[in-house]
Amino acid sequence: MTKTKGALIGCGFFAVNQMHGWQDLDDVEIVAICDRDPERLSVVGDQFGVERHYQSAEALFADGGFDFVDIATTVGSHRALVELAASHRVPAICQKPFAPTLADAKAMVAAADAAGIPLMIHENFRWQTPILAVKAVLDSGVIGEPFWGRVSFRSGFDVFSGQPYLAKGKRFIIEDLGIHSLDIARFLFGDASRMTARTRRVNPDIAGEDVATMLLDHDNGITSIVDVSYATKLPEEPFPETFVEIDGTTGTLRLGKDYKLTVHGPEGTVQSVVAPNLLPWASRPWHNIQESVALIQKHWAERLAEGREPDTSGRDNLKTFALVEAAYLSAESGETVTIADLL
Ligand code: NAD
Ligand code: 89Y
Known about the structure:
Blueprint: E1 4-9, H1 15-23, E2 28-34, H2 38-48, E3 52-54, H3 57-63, E4 68-71, H4 78-87, E5 92-95, H5 102-115, E6 119-122, H6 129-140, E7 146-154, H7 173-189, E8 192-200, E9 211-218, E10 223-229, E11 243-248, E12 252-256, E13 260-265, E14 268-273, H8 287-306, H9 314-333, E15 337-338
Parallel strand pairs: 1-2, 1-4, 2-3, 4-5, 5-6, 7-10
Antiparallel strand pairs: 7-11, 8-9, 8-15, 9-10, 11-12, 12-13, 13-14
The structure holds nicotinamide-adenine-dinucleotide and (3R,4R)-3,4-dihydroxy-4-(hydroxymethyl)oxolan-2-one (89Y).
């Protein structure tokens, strides 16, 4: 079998999950890795048996020999690296958050389009098993037409120990985590036209906001609330579970703690557990996120082979990223922001 060859840039905290995800795919092989930090290069190179190591992305692309690049660096380098991939006409995956600003993100989509390469944002939360289960219930029609929804992520988990940069940015929870919740809201309820948001910082040791409450008007008339917090101290820590509530014309859906799904419809109430699989390389409580990494990467490999746009393409993800920008604008001004004014 001819394998699709990939290169990975950024061998940090999260990239290890991505490497495992690639290793699980029989038809994909990561042939080269790149990181500015030689120590990270050796750790990841040794762990996954990758021999070609680069400390500079320019040198990696100059040598070539791969069919796509997986960019797993933090946000500040995303635009330059995607533009570099485009200049070499190499299909690219870029981690969330897309870019520092919406203008950067638009420029990245334009660069990929001009080069004729696919660009996918690694927006994996919609690929979580419990979220896919919620979507399947909606699509089944059992709760009728949804008219109200809530996507909620409230936690007191210490994310700063693994990702210390999260404590330093002027923007925190909406850009880092809320971006996933907003994408889930789009995935379940469709595109949104207006955003009203309020934020606050509770943790005095970080620079950005750690609580956000967002109200979305969706194009199809659904109203949703997306609320996120890393300042919520609960008796049982739910990290990294997303809770979902949906009211429809003929029933309701509730996804709660420990992946318990309750669907109430005209025929009665059905309760089930829609827990993620614990992949052999995964560890609790991250396994929900880790499985979604494997699933989105499988999706990329399939779409790349078929020559079809991935679901969370750069073009698609501009609409999620616009919600992030809109939330910050709304929180700052106190006004409702019209999404079309940003896109
Ligand atoms: P990290 O800081 O641990 O790792 C980033 C690595 O990239 C570092 O080793 C750094 O040396 C390297 N790097 C940075 N710029 C580079 C460049 N120009 N060339 C080569 N190497 C470069 O960060 P992380 O926690 O692994 O996060 C990486 C990205 O993954 C972030 O955008 C973060 O938001 C995202 N992330 C996504 C999820 C998810 O579920 N999708 C979860 C966690 C983190
Ligand atoms: O960076 C974040 C993400 O994308 O998922 C969870 C996280 O690791 C911390 O908020």
